[in-house]
Amino acid sequence: NKNLTAFQAPGYREFIQCLKGTISEKDATSKTKVKTRNYAKRQFTWFRKLKEITWFDVSDGYRNCVKNISDLIVRTGW
Fold first, then answer.
1. Which helix (H) or strand (E) holds 4?
2. pLDDT tens for residues 14-63?
3. pLDDT of residue 53
4. Which helix or strand (DSSP H or E) is residue 7 part of?
5. What is the pTM assigned to this prediction?
6. What are phi and psi of 25, to 5 degrees?
7. Does 78 have pLDDT greater than 80?
8. What pLDDT was estimated at residue 45?
9. Residue 11 in contact with residue 36, Cβ under 8 Å?
10. Which of 49, 11, 17 is nearest to 31 (CA)?
11. Cα–Cα distance, 66 to 18 (Å, whole number)
12. Which end of the chain has the smaller Cβ count within 10 Å, N or C?
């Protein structure tokens, strides 16, 4: 059922259109990428408003991220 909530996620509608032959695989991929990027921007904007969120830089590597999380837990008694 195309009205289900899950089908509102980026990519589903495009994939179905591709299967039906109404758009090409290339167009489906391109549209999915744009919708995914826009969705991520909206999420980031929403999360940025929440002051209680603690962000961790995962580009520092797994061990540093885990250390920072455990330090936060110890520091806050979470």
1. none
2. 999 999 999 999 999 999 999 999 999 999 999 989 988 888 888 878 89
3. 85
4. none
5. 0.65
6. -60, -40
7. no
8. 93
9. yes
10. 11
11. 41
12. N
Q: What is the pLDDT of residue 1?
A: 73
Residue 40 vs residues 6, 45, 70: alpha-carbon distances, Å: 17, 9, 27
- Contact of 14 with 39, CB cutoff 8 Å: no
| Whole-angstrom distance, CA of residue 49 vs CA of residue 66 | 24
Residue with tokens 């837990």: 73
3-state secondary structure string, 42-69? Answer: HHHHHHHCCCCCCCCCHHHCHHHHHHHH
Look at the block and give the residue holding tokens 């109404």: 22
pLDDT, position 34: 97
- Asked whether 15 and 31 are in contact (CB, 8 A), the reply is no
Which two tokens mark 6?
Answer: 């899950």
Per-residue tokens: 7? 């089908």
Q: Which two tokens stand for residue 48?
A: 């940025």
